[in-house]
Amino acid sequence: MSASFERWLTASENQRLAQLSVPARREEFIACRYALRWLLARDVRQIGQFPLEAPHGRGPRLDTRHPLSHLLHLSLSHSNGYIACAVSSQPVGIDIEILARQPRSTWHERAALACTDHERAELSTIADDEQRHRRFMQWWSLKEAWFKRAQTGVDLALLPRLACVQGDAIPLPRALAEHARCWTTRTPEGHAALLSVCSQIPDMRCELQDDAQLRWLCAGSFGYAMA
Questions:
Q1: pTM of the shown model
Q2: Where is each 4'-phosphopantetheinyl transferase domain found (predicted)?
């Protein structure tokens, strides 16, 4: 795959790739772009027929000259050597988080950056550090997926106002149109992993294709609200 990537990466993708100096990040970039093409083509011989654009600060999209460019929406994510990609008929956001490293900041600092008052209060009731970190990262992943669906990039001013609520517990006046689903697993290395997908479809139909065979377990459906 990587040996022939120059034949199918577009000019804008090559520009993005040239900005990445860390080998692992370059490999993840190429792998994500290949995986998206495979989802679109379903045939490795046809991946060149699906040119992708890589606009600065935005997610991937089909070249506007492609006949399906206005019909399909794309999203991708990568974390610690794992990648996740999504193709949908509706705007979609996907995020994968592999919890392979200890956080550099305290949970108070992370919560102040990314959590609502209610979410911070819930974190304070969790005594176990690992469980608290996983709960925070679940919210982080859900919020990342929301911003990716919106194609805006993470807004640090909006981030602590965006609430994630499981099930149908969101007060209607504050509810947003987007919905999400989350899955959890552990990698062969023993690291916890999270996968979140966001869409405007309440009962979205998700067809997981897991080449890594991680055996994802559904962690529930979520809604969003502005706190």
A1: 0.92
A2: 91-154
